[in-house]
Amino acid sequence: MNETIVEVRNLNKRYKDLLALDNVNLTLTANRIYGLLGRNGAGKTTLMSILTAQAFASSGQALVFGASAYENDAVLARVCFIRESQKYPDDFQPQHAFRSAALFYENWDQDFADRLAEDFQLPVKRRIKKLSRGQLSAVGVIIGLASRAELTFFDEPYLGLDAVARQLFYDRLVQDYAEHPRTIILSSHLIDEVANLLEHVVVIDRGRIIMDADAEDIRGSAVTVSGSAEKVDMFLAGRKILHRETLGSLASVTVDEALNSRERAEAQELGLELTPVSLQQLVVRKTMSGSGAAGTAAGASEFPLGTDDTMEARR
Q1: Per-residue b/e over 131-148, b at no fewer than 16 CB within 10 Å?
Q2: Of 154, 150, 144, 147, which is closest to residue 185 (Cα–Cα)?
Q3: Counting C-beta atoms within 10 Å of the first and last residue's C-beta, which end of the chain has fewer, N or C?
Q4: CA angle 182, 10, 61 (to 5 degrees)
Q5: Residue 89 has pLDDT above 70, yes or no
């Protein structure tokens, strides 16, 4: 069994009248890639900020490597937190940022950083304030990867990258993780892009954990049933409905349950179509269901699963 490296118990964070984290309980173990997913303002950045000592909890406990990270150099030296809004001194160049990281992270690999800079075509001697958004994102992901910190958080720092550069990031992450296992937390709204990378999924909605499961267990855990509304309703009677759409006499209903072989055969006999639910669709449906929007039309389901949490931005 893998070692526990993060333990969160009854964690709450309040900003005046806003409850950003609501009794969060979470355990993260060593050498896994986690997805921390949720809508904009759900509490993702707030949670990561508390775990990395960049914010304080209102109550509860957050332990990293068995201790609080706050003013704890021994813990913080083993943790890397990369976010899109990363700040650097005005006169810094990427090469300066890398040298600083080398001083802080004991597992830093300068050769790897140099190769990544080449891969991302990053001008390492240009002032960071003169870099494009994509180049600035590349600085962050290079530090996050080359640090090889035992616990690494990526809070959407790759949003500025184009599709080709994002794929490069995913490829390099998987390759280096295979050779140098550590615990990586990816917070992303590009769920379909990262789905195949994730070993465990944590979904947070309105400050509460609503899903905490291995990615393998989630695959096939929900299904969409389509066909005659009368037959769909008869077939799904008593099941947990995540989302329903109707068009005349036809219905398309997503249920939060897997179907066994007998049930699938029964659906086929009724002339019903079964469609697997992707991780992104499942997260969308679960968070919409939690907000009372489960019955909305398909076009309304593409909500912003965003970068920085709204709660954190209001601090």
Answers
A1: beebbbbbbbbbbbbbbb
A2: 154
A3: N
A4: 60
A5: yes
Partnered with residue 62 across adjacent β-strands are: 8
Amino acid present at 285: R
Give, in order, the Cα–Cα distances in Å from 2 to each of 31, 108, 137, 255. 8, 24, 31, 33
Predicted TM-score of the model (pTM): 0.86
List domains and CATH numbers for the chain: 4-217 (3.40.50.300), 221-301 (no CATH)
Edge-to-edge strand order for the sheet containing 4-15? 18-29, 4-15, 59-64
The structure tokens listed for 252 are 């398309």
What tokens does 64 get? 């990293």
Q: Tell me: the pLDDT tens digits for 187-245?
A: 988 898 999 999 999 999 999 999 999 999 998 889 999 999 999 999 999 999 999 99
Rounded-to-integer distance, Cα 224 and Cα 284, Å: 14
User: What stretches of 40-85 show up as alpha helix (H) in DSSP?
Assistant: 44-51, 73-76
Residue with tokens 């190769």: 115
Six-digit token pair at 294?
């489960």
